[in-house]
Amino acid sequence: MRVFAPILLMAFTLGTAAFADDPYPFQRSDGKWGYVNDDHCWVIEPQFDFADSFYEGLASVSVGRKRGYVNENGAMQVPFSDGFNQRFSDGLAPVQFGRKWGYINDR
């Protein structure tokens, strides 16, 4: 049962909608990801290997194998670390370090 729990949790968190005003991820021609606004102007310069949408004011980003969370101004809210993370929902986000899963909060 533990093997399927993260997958089920991921399915539930994927249904959470981002707000229309949030910057959204956009990939530059060199492959780097950043965030643009509705006018397609960069609000966070491309610097990530992967960038997810904002949920509850934070977005999961990665550089290499390191993952972390940025706020809508581009400041790191949760520093980069090895592991896997998912979107925030109700102030919590599931994270994986090695074979262990846990939660971090958005504060």
Which key phrases capture this entry?
107 residues, mainly beta, 3-stranded antiparallel β-sheet, 10 strands, disordered N terminus
What does this structure look like?
It contains 1 helix and 10 strands. It has one helix spanning 5-14, and strands at 24-27, 33-36, 42-48, 50-55, 58-63, 66-71, 76-82, 84-85, 92-97, 100-105. The chain is globular and about 40 Å long.
In short:
This protein is mainly β and 107 residues long. Helices cover 9% and strands 50% of the residues. A four-stranded antiparallel sheet has the order 4-5-6-7, with no helix packed on it. A three-stranded antiparallel sheet has the order 1-2-3, with no helix packed on it.
**Gyration radius over CA:** 14 Å
Helix content: under 10%
What's the arrangement of strands in the largest beta sheet? Answer: 4-5-6-7
Gap between N and C termini? 30 Å
The tally of beta strands, per DSSP, is 10
- How large is the count of helical segments? 1
SSE map:
Blueprint (H helix, E strand, L loop, with lengths): L4 H10 L9 E4 L5 E4 L5 E7 L1 E6 L2 E6 L2 E6 L4 E7 L1 E2 L6 E6 L2 E6 L2
Antiparallel strand pairs: 1-2, 2-3, 4-5, 5-6, 6-7, 8-9, 9-10
